[in-house]
Amino acid sequence: MKKLIIAVFCCLPFTLFAQQSGGIKFIDGMNWQQVLAKAKQENKFIFVDMMATWCGPCKMMDNFTYPKAEVGEAFRQNFISVKVQVDSTAKDNENVKSWYRDAKYLEKQYNVTALPTLLFFSPDGKLVHRGTGLKNVAQLIELSKDALNPDKQLYTLLERYSRGEKQDMSKLPDLSQTAKDAGDDSLAASIAATYLESYLFKKSIDSLTQGDIYFMATHINNSKDKIFALFMDPKAASSINTKMQKAGFAPNYAQLVTDGIITKEEVSPHFPGEAEASPKEPDWKKINKNIQKKYGKETAARIMLKAKQVWYYSIKDWKNFSLYAFKKFESSGIGSSFMDRAGTNNLLYSVIFKNVDDAGILEKAARWAKKIVDADAVDTTASLNLRANNIDTYANLLYKAGNKEDAIMWQQKAARLDEEYAKQNNTKPQDVFNATLEKMRNNKPTWTEDN
């Protein structure tokens, strides 16, 4: 919801720097070819952090993972570490600008589609391992150890698979993802199919793990797929939902998965292409009838509600989008997990607060935001940072709806929680909370960036 500010790193030529003493030291002032030459000369592996200034998880690793002494110790002896910024901003220093071409090359060459992406190269410059997403200290150290081990290097294992060598079945999900990350969708699909047919489909529903279920859910091709039928089966779905809920997923996980497939087949084809200047509203009655015929009235009603929400979002009809969003909340709630609340909070802030001026809609959005704030207050898993952001949304909605006094009171609470969070984690508070508070006190809009 809030943009995280990434610190621009030092631009002294041909020097090393670290976020904190003892942490990872990212090399500076060398281009990619020079890094490759240095690695070969020193017989060291290369660690590349592909990041962007707008990437929240990247910033979190900068603050909480890379500075740790144990991480620095794990990387110092074996790796040359490089931080590569894939976006460009007006604040980029000369070192970042000098990497623009190399950054684009690495991004394209190694199919970097998510950030952060962590790439590991052998001393001779060959990609041997990779990871994606936020990593804590233990996870990053473990990833670095795997990168040094030929029996765990994903690209080395992928080569062995391609040669027909027998593989540890438990490695196939990671190999399938690695093939996909490398841009070889055909090989990724082949590995996934082998894993499904030779392993997962032979297990009983009760013996499936959360990881097994997630893998299956992400490899459903269409409504004729064996996995789709499994997730549609009431008994199997109940077992799936119970296991996934324990892992922090929605309690109706199986339904969400099958609804996605039904939507793709029954709704999406009726949506116009992006190039269409004046898109015509879909024939909702026809779509609803088709879904009812195949899956029943209850499923149709649920999917139509979501479809209309997506449609009005796509044409930027924020009033109707809001109304259907509220109907969906009323129908199914906002979810009990902090992740569900965070997602709903993002919708209330980024879409409704930012784009709607109708006081009645804003007041209704504020009532849903208050439900999130109340749920946070009794949820011990909700971090102070999350609670602060959710309160900030509630305060902003109140303010835009015209309730300035209550808005200021709640915004003060958000700022205090953020300060407490920063103190606990030895970081700086986010400027945005107090900046928003100041705007409220001075009767300035908080929903624009230029005030």
Walk me through what this model shows.
With 451 residues, the chain is an alpha+beta fold. It has helices at residues 32-42, 56-64, 69-76, 94-98, 100-109, 137-148, 154-162, 172-181, 185-198, 210-217, 226-232, 234-246, 253-266, 284-295, 297-314, 318-332, 338-355, 359-377, 384-401, 404-425, 431-441, and strands spanning 16-18, 25-27, 45-51, 79-85, 117-121, 127-132. The protein has a four-stranded mixed beta sheet with strand order 4-3-5-6, with helices on both faces. Strands 1-2 form a two-stranded antiparallel ribbon. Strand 1 and strand 2 (25-27) form a beta hairpin. The protein is globular.
Blueprint of the fold:
Elements: E1 16-18, E2 25-27, H1 32-42, E3 45-51, H2 56-64, H3 69-76, E4 79-85, H4 94-98, H5 100-109, E5 117-121, E6 127-132, H6 137-148, H7 154-162, H8 172-181, H9 185-198, H10 210-217, H11 226-232, H12 234-246, H13 253-266, H14 284-295, H15 297-314, H16 318-332, H17 338-355, H18 359-377, H19 384-401, H20 404-425, H21 431-441
Parallel strand pairs: 3-4
Antiparallel strand pairs: 1-2, 3-5, 5-6
